[in-house]
Design brief:
The structure holds two protein chains of two kinds. Chain A is an alpha/beta fold. Chain A has two domains: 6-319, Aldolase class I (TIM Barrel, Alpha-Beta Barrel), CATH 3.20.20; 327-425, 2-Layer Sandwich (Alpha-Beta Plaits), CATH 3.30.70. Chain A contains 14 helices and 18 strands. The termini of chain A are far apart. Chain B is globular. In chain B, strand 9 (326-333) and strand 10 form a beta hairpin. Chain B is of the alpha/beta class. Chain B has three domains: 33-126 and 449-485, Alpha-helical ferredoxin (Fumarate Reductase Iron-sulfur Protein, Chain B, domain 2), CATH 1.10.1060; 137-231 and 377-445, FAD/NAD(P)-binding domain (3-Layer(bba) Sandwich); 246-372, FAD/NAD(P)-binding domain. The chains are: A alpha/beta, B alpha/beta. The A-B interface holds A 64-65, 342-346, 348-349, 352-353, 361, 368-369, 371-375, 377-378, 398-399 and B 30, 33, 36-42, 45, 95, 97-98, 100-101, 458, 460, 472, 474-475, 477-478, 481, 485.
Chain lengths: 436, 485
């Protein structure tokens, strides 16, 4: 049993799984249910001046048989009064003293920020998250992502918060920005205690092809929404890694974006996050998913010999390099296991039409009946000298373990593009000939 | 004393309901999403009409269901009936690579039904005859699947086609001989209508040689396609065969399609002689129509029956009993002069490898209905009478070039059961289509080829016609390979 508890910038939590600020953390009723299910923490749905929402609010994209592979919303911050929210926070905190309860805030003036920060502390919250990220609705009013997109403005507002806060302050970053580390550095400069990322991505998920109006549909129109769910995980992971690897950031990170199982949690933590936040998956399946997340993470840590999350945290950071430092002489080649091949030929057609024409169809000599059980039907065969090791065939192959990418020892020493440029300019090596 | 019907209409509606009902849109989309969209897929090679299966399934996933129907119908004009009656387990679905991955193939037949149903319901005319006509006239003798496959293809190539059909409706066994829980005649008749819309003329209730002479047809038409199928059921050649209560299984099935279900007489104890797929259809439907006991008697061993495994399973599930190595030697009348019992003998294979009756093994089973399903007679007598120069092979079927359907008489073409000895509906359609192209080449000296198969675009040669030229049966090939090893 590994130790899953965390101390996140002073916020203590029995496990790293938090409910992100959003619809699942809207009320005391829901937060009680989340804690009953086992969630380590909850970031309350953003509190501010109560807003008025539209009907409808959500849309999503399905991929194949998977519903809500990507999810989008135009729902704003809490539509309940600050008094109600702070009162409920204090009630919940009393009942769940060992869990992390974080107030998410979004207001406008310095006075309002001071006021809301104090209310959060008075209610007994363990920390504050500043919502500088929502890409819709609030930015038109000078809040949300317009703050997060301008590091100078963000720095000023964080400064206001830090003037009065007695609690750890976490800044939630928007991904709708050219370089997220600029925003992270602003948070650091302003004295914030942590960052959380990513908020949702500007989006239009799809049109209704009959009406040609996007969803979510509001009286004949729609608006840019915030995109999240499984489909955004790669973007979130990249941004978490970029912030974690930046020596000028050096803040605890709460990872958000497409986390639905313990597997994504491992990825975020290994790339530098200390806690992870989940919203869409709970909106899809309910709070109960945390049981598997805790158990799966625990078993994973045990299986890898880690005794606590700290030993996993940031462990993969060193494996992400700038491209110019990758070894140009490294080589891998695809290898087909004909015992597993079912003869779909997707590897062939994808390489032929979509990549490097390094797979040929040849008579199935020596492969008995052959994959696909059709005697004499040509089978795909890798041409090693043409294979650039791009991975495409192994990605399209529908059978687990059928196409593997194997490393080739070609005897060439490691050579990064950076070193290559240097050596060529010094005349130490001839330029590599262009691909025919 | 005749037989009576056994069950009320409400109960029959349930018992005779479709085995594989239509997919809803969601069911179809979910199932279609299982398809891997193989390149040069084995399912295309396994389809005797060469339908580009991955293409049509992909179109279902995108909501382009009309396009899916177009892909199907341009390859196989009887796509709707084949979707229901094809033994997909041994054809396309038996070749599906998802079977290897998941142990369960993509349900190609049911998806094909979904797409063709959609086209039929939406009323879109998918197939078009060209406005430019060749001026050539072709007669089709026999409006079954082979004749329809040939007629539709010829019409789309610009020829004028007349189909001569001796029954009141065209469609052949699709209209009159399919188990009720697989397909209703309506589907087949809709296909006939679709072919009519291509400009094909149907002359039903017209028997060639009786109502119209062959010489007249030969004079009025530039080429003739013979697709007359097989004749009535084979005889058992035993005493009592002509007793009331003894009938051909196919005649029994035809009644099911031509009468209300609750008016079809069925015995209390029904014996079906033979163990092919028609025998299974007969025994299963007899049971569902209310027979208390229905059994199959087969003179050979279980392993030698020609019924498909899944048909055999279906019959067993319906409570049919199987008596193997049992050959009828006499049908015995009761005191009213009706079928009362069958006397059987047991058989075995002797050392010389031939079937012999075991002496003293006779036993008698009381029955009140006997359905004969021991194969259909060849049509060689009729054909020899009307086309004296036509050549036959030793099986008694018409000799022809399998690629073009052309017989030894240049303007006579053939396909379907009368040319192949009795195979699936889909084989008949494919052979009709190939014969149409043979006729086209014969009359115009031009080669017609099928539509490009997009999911084979890039194979060696031209990506048309996989499966049409020579369909494979992957499971049989696999079994044969494993046996040899």
């Amino acid at each position: 049993m590994a130790n899953l508890s965390i101390d996140f910038a002073g916020i203590k939590s029995p496990n790293p799984f938090w409910i992100a600020s959003g619809p699942p953390s809207n009320t005391a009723y829901q937060v009680h249910r989340a804690f009953e299910a086992g969630w380590g923490g909850v970031v309350w749905k953003t509190i501010g001046e109560p807003i008025r929402n539209t009907s409808s609010r959500y849309s999503s994209i399905d991929i194949g048989n998977m519903r809500m592979a990507g999810f989008n919303n135009i729902e704003l911050i809490s539509d309940r009064s600050p008094e109600t929210n702070f009162h409920e926070i204090s009630e919940v905190k009393k009942r769940w003293p060992d869990r992390a309860l974080i107030a998410s805030l979004m207001v406008d003036t310095r006075d309002h920020w001071h006021d809301f920060v104090k209310c959060s502390a008075d209610a007994g919250a363990d920390g504050i998250e500043l919502n500088f990220g929502c890409p819709h609705g609030m930015c038109e009013r000078g809040m949300g992502s317009v703050v997060g997109q301008d590091p100078a403005v963000a720095e000023t507002i964080i400064g206001w918060v830090m003037e009065v806060s007695t609690l750890p302050v976490m800044v939630k970053l928007t991904p709708n920005i050219t370089d997220i580390t600029a925003a992270a550095k602003a948070a650091r400069r302003a004295g914030a205690n942590a960052i959380s990322l990513i908020n949702t991505i500007n989006s239009i998920t799809h049109l209704n092809l009959d009406t040609l109006v996007p969803e979510p549909f509001v009286a004949g129109f729609s608006a840019h929404g915030g995109y999240c769910g499984p489909a955004v995980k790669p973007i979130a992971l990249q941004m978490v890694q970029a912030c974690a690897a930046d020596p000028q950031v050096q803040l605890p990170i709460s990872g958000i974006g497409g986390i639905a199982t313990w597997r994504e949690a491992v990825e975020f933590i290994a790339l530098g996050a200390s806690s992870v936040q989940v919203c869409t998956a709970v909106m899809h399946y309910g709070f109960r998913i945390v049981e598997d997340m805790i158990e799966g993470l625990d078993d994973y840590l045990d299986s890898k010999g880690f005794t606590c999350l700290g030993e996993l945290q940031g462990r993969a950071l060193r494996t992400v390099r700038d491209w110019e430092n990758l070894d140009l002489n490294y080589q891998r080649v695809a290898d087909i296991d004909y015992e597993k091949c079912i003869g779909c030929n997707l590897c062939y057609i994808s390489c032929e039409d979509g990549a490097h024409q390094a797979i040929q169809l040849v008579p199935p000599d020596g492969h008995s009946l052959g994959p696909g059980r059709v005697p004499g039907k040509p089978i795909p065969q890798i041409v090693p000298e043409l294979c650039v090791g791009c991975n495409l065939c192994s990605l399209v192959c529908p059978v687990d373990g059928c196409i593997t990418m194997t490393s080739i020892n070609n005897g060439n020493p490691e050579l990064s593009w950076r070193n290559y440029q240097m050596k060529v300019s010094r005349g130490e090596m001839a330029p590599i000939p262009a691909h025919p | 004393m005749g037989l009576s019907s056994k069950l009320p209409p409400e109960e029959l509606a349930i018992k005779m309901a479709e085995l594989a009902p239509a997919y809803t849109q969601q069911e179809a989309t979910l199932e279609a999403a299982r398809c891997l969209f193989c390149f040069d897929a084995p399912c295309i090679m396994a389809c005797p009409t060469g339908i580009d299966v991955p293409s049509f399934i992909r179109k279902i996933t995108t909501g382009n269901v009309t396009g899916a129907a177009r892909t199907i119908l341009t390859a196989n004009v009887l796509g709707a009936s084949c979707a229901r009656v094809c033994p997909t387990e041994v054809l396309c679905e038996g070749a599906c690579v998802v079977l290897d991955r998941e142990g369960d193939p993509v349900k190609i037949g049911r998806l094909q039904r979904y797409a063709t149903d959609y086209a039929a319901k939406s009323g879109i005319q998918i197939l078009q005859a060209p406005s430019q006509r060749t001026g050539k006239n072709i007669a089709i003798i026999g409006g079954g699947p082979a004749g329809l496959g040939c007629a539709a293809e010829l019409a789309q190539l610009g020829h004028a086609v007349v189909v001569f059909e001796k029954k009141p409706n065209a469609g052949g066994l699709n209209t009159y001989g399919i188990a009720y829980y697989k397909m209703k005649p309506r589907v087949s008749l809709e296909e006939v209508t679709m072919i009519q819309q291509l400009g094909v003329k149907f002359r039903c209730n017209v028997e060639v040689g009786t109502d119209v002479s062959v010489s007249r047809i030969e004079k009025e038409f530039d080429a003739i396609f013979i697709g007359i199928g097989l004749n009535g059921g084979e005889f058992l050649g035993i005493p009592g065969e002509d007793l009331p209560g003894v009938m051909d299984a196919l005649d029994f099935i035809e009644q099911i399609h031509t009468k209300p279900l609750h008016e079809i007489p069925v015995g209390n104890t029904v014996a079906v002689i033979g163990c092919g797929n028609t025998a299974i259809d007969a025994v299963t439907q007899a049971k569902r129509l209310g027979a208390k006991k229905a059994f199959i008697a087969y003179r050979r061993h279980e392993l030698e029956m020609s019924a498909y495994d899944f048909e055999y399973e279906l019959a067993k599930q319906d409570g049919a009993v199987f008596s193997f190595n049992s050959v009828p030697v006499e049908i015995v009348a009761n005191e009213a002069g009706w079928v009362g019992a069958i006397k059987f003998a047991k058989t075995e294979i002797n050392t010389a490898g031939s079937l012999q009756i075991l002496p003293g093994s006779e036993f008698t089973e009381p029955v009140d209905m006997v359905l004969k399903a021991v194969g259909q007679q060849k049509q060689s007598n009729w054909l020899q009478e009307h086309f004296p120069l036509l050549k036959f092979d030793q099986r008694g079927v018409v000799e022809h070039d399998p690629a073009t359907g052309q017989t030894n008489i240049a303007h006579l073409f053939t396909g379907g059961d009368c040319a192949n000895g009795g195979r699936e509906v889909v084989n008949a359609v494919g052979e009709g289509k190939k014969a149409a192209r043979g006729i086209h080449a014969f009359l115009t000296q031009q080669i017609a080829s099928g539509p490009i198969q997009p999911s084979r675009y890039g194979v060696d040669g031209i990506p048309v016609g996989a499966g049409l030229e020579q369909a494979i049966r992957v499971r049989e090939l696999e079994a044969a390979y494993l046996r040899e090893r």
